[in-house]
Amino acid sequence: MSRARKPLVLEELGAWLLGLLWVIPLLFAVWAAVHPPEFAARFDPTAPLTLDNFAMAWERAPFPRYFLNTFLLVTLILAGQFIVCTLAAYAFARVRFPGADIVFALVLIQLMITPDVLIVENYRSMAKLGLLDTITGMGLPYVASAFGVFLLRQAFKQVPRELDDAAQIEGASTLGILWRVYVPVARPIYVAYGLVSVSFHWNNFLWPLIVTNSVEKRPLTVGLALFGAAETGVDWSTICAATLISVAPLLIAFLLFQRQFVQSFIRVGIK
Amino acid sequence: MIGTRSRHWVEGWLLVLPALVLLVAFTHWPVIASLIDSLNSTPRRGAAPNFVGLENYQRLVADPVFAKVMWNNAVFAFGTIPTSVVLALLMAVWVNSAIRGRAALRLAYFTPTILPMIAAANIWLFFYTPDYGLLDQITGLFGFGRTNWLGNPDTVLWCIVVMTVWKEAGFFMIFYLAALQAIPPDLTEAASLDGTSRWYFFRRVTLPLIMPTTLFVLVNAVINSFKLVDHIVVMTKGGPDNASSLILYYIYETAFSFWDTAYASALTMVLLVVLALLALVQFGVLERRIHYR
Q1: Which of the residues A112, A152, A179 would you substitute to probe the B interface, choosing the one with the greatest number of B C-beta atoms within 10 Å?
Q2: Whole-model pTM?
Q3: A223, B102, B230, B246: least buried by Cβ within 10 Å?
């Protein structure tokens, strides 16, 4: 890294002020969550600490179920994306077949028109397929990811053709070559794409909200939104506790692997 | 080698088949189906839909709520994008400098990005609560009275804008950070030897060099402003009086609260056209400009 320049004192103050502004909402949520409800908005340093809000939140909603559902959803999508996108990316990168350009163009359309905006028709399709209120229904529209195909195709193109040919002469099958030559080379891309995909789907809300209608299938985000709905009359301290419970796993993972997260977002974003 | 061509033929298609089937089912077909449904009436009580031509679109043109949500979307985009892009660049410049506590700062700026929008919305909802919320407590210190920030049509959209800027700026920051770190150090050194002022250097060297990033970030920000409505569901449900409703939220409401799927399809078509136009801008104009590097 180059010798970074020294900022002016004024800049430093600005940077810190902005940083403070940026963490206030989070600190505030933590404050409300660890103090009794009457101190939720009263910043008295002598206020007693408590974990009651977490206990209350945990009791009021089936968080273990929500966690399990989110975990299943994220896993299903990621596994599906890895398989489906790997196969397609390899075909686009290395196999010459008629119609490849047209199919690739069809794939790229999804970069812009993602399932997020096609909620009306996809809901109808899921109803017809009998997949409403299932984890599969929540995940399926996202499995064939144009983004994943595109990234992996770029990565696969870097692989020297000689490796490919050598393996072929040794009699390896296409899938064998893909598995033993291409996938290992693209490992960093899988990690980066995986992190971004997991973060996205852990946090995704609108489509899961539309597709699910039972507690048994709801992911965390939907559970959390219903938990906090004004009609329920739950107090803020409990809502903040519930919010922190929901974000904890991803936030902790992020704090532990900060660099990998940031690198992944950059790597997947700029390509 | 006999048969290599046809082997490739079959192999290629077999490999793309799973992706293609899923894409057709959940992206291409829904687009076509939206078009078809938008030209028909909403099926009610078992009655089959019938062809109504452009009726849904005529209704759309005359619908004040549609005009309102399109306007809101424009305000939302213009409110969030320039602010978050400028803030993101500022953050990146600071975090890229030898500032004290820069790891902590980077963390502070980036953390909102990792949170689900729903969690952020929950926290900010409390912020904006009248009397009790943090914002009213702060303005109260300056002698202002109770303000129902989210209940007032004049302030509600701006409240959403502020929260979105908070949520997104850190995300854009990391792209700027990557771009800044890619600037060759010799350039900076040469400039400092020359005695070039920092502002001049920033304007004439840094800014043009990070232009591709700016375009990338801008396009992403615009797309996001049309695709993300999670916070609307939690914070305002589009209210009061549609003052904070955005196009995708209106689609959601029309389809899943009023069950008027034909009209929701017509609205979807409008959104798709907007996204398609953005795609043209991205792949056409911008790509040509970016490729100098």
Answers
A1: A112
A2: 0.89
A3: B102
